[in-house]
Amino acid sequence: MDHKVAEKTGTAHNVRYVDDMVLFDSSKRRLHKALEFIEAEVKATKQTVKDNWQVFILSKRPLDFLGFKFHTNKTTIRKSIMLRISRKARTIARAAYASIRNAHAMVSYVGYIVNSDSQRFYEKWVRPFVNIAQLKGVIADEDRKQHQACVAV
Predict the structure, then answer these.
(1) Most exposed among 23, 37, 66, 72, judged by the fewest C-beta atoms under 10 Å?
(2) Kind of pairing, strands 63-65 and 68-70?
(3) Is residue 35 included in any domain, yes or no?
(4) What would the pLDDT profile of 75-120 be if each residue is shown by its tens digit?
(5) Which domain covers residue 35, as residue numbers?
(6) How many independent structural domains does the chain possess?
(7) Do 32 and 86 lie in a common domain?
(8) Quick check: helix, strand or coil at residue 75?
(9) Where are the beta strands (DSSP E) in 1-149?
């Protein structure tokens, strides 16, 4: 369906993740035509498009998608995710040792930071509390133990 939408509607860019679809174009008219086309295609499969779809100007309001906020000139992390990251960093700092679960979570959160423009957030709220290389070492040690246990059986 993605190829059909791009081909038939002529929208500049299309992004889809599972059941979310985002269309970018300089023309609101073209976006509304694309929505009509998508509704017709979806209706043929006896499904519907949710009523809360929106057309808005990206320069005036960021697009909140997949945990990121996409602005015209930068990409930031959603505020609720930033809070979770900073709380997890402080939790790890307070603990006597980093559990495998916390290590996995923090290394996963670093993926958000790396793929966004959040370097200052990292320097202020994550780096003083955790050592990412050490957490990766915790994960590697645990994986090595599990692998050796599997081989021994």
Answers:
(1) 72
(2) antiparallel
(3) yes
(4) 999 999 999 999 999 999 999 999 999 999 999 999 999 999 999 9
(5) 2-55
(6) 2
(7) no
(8) strand
(9) 13-17, 20-24, 63-65, 68-70, 75-77
